[in-house]
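Our consortium's second objective concerns turning raw sequence data into structural hypotheses that experimental partners can test. To show how far this objective has progressed, the report includes one record in full. It was chosen at random from the queue rather than selected for favorable results. The single chain below, 109 residues long, was entered without modification.
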Amino acid sequence: MKQIVVVPNKGRWNAAQLRKEKMSEIKVTKEQVQNIIAVSKVDSVKLGEKSTVVSVTLPNGFVIIESSSCVDPANYDHELGMKICMERVENKVWELEGYLLQERKSKLK
């Protein structure tokens, strides 16, 4: 099993920032999503002859699991499978952070 652990980075908004800035200007940014992924624990494994499964444990302990497969085992490429899975993880983090921001905004009204 391949394991990647990286060091923390900054870039998340907080409640004080939400109160100070115009709520319409607060948004989830690519940098924010990348920073969250950068401090997450990533594990990957090849399953069978043609599938990659990636588990990403976010800093708060929430786990996202994604998978990718190819049709022909001769075409299997673990790095490509990881890339596909990590793109899906990034999209999921966008979705989760968007939900969290919407929740925080709704409580400030």
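The partners drew two points from this record. Residues 1-10 have pLDDT under 50 and may be disordered. The chain has one domain: 26-108. Both points have been shared with the crystallography group to help prioritize constructs.
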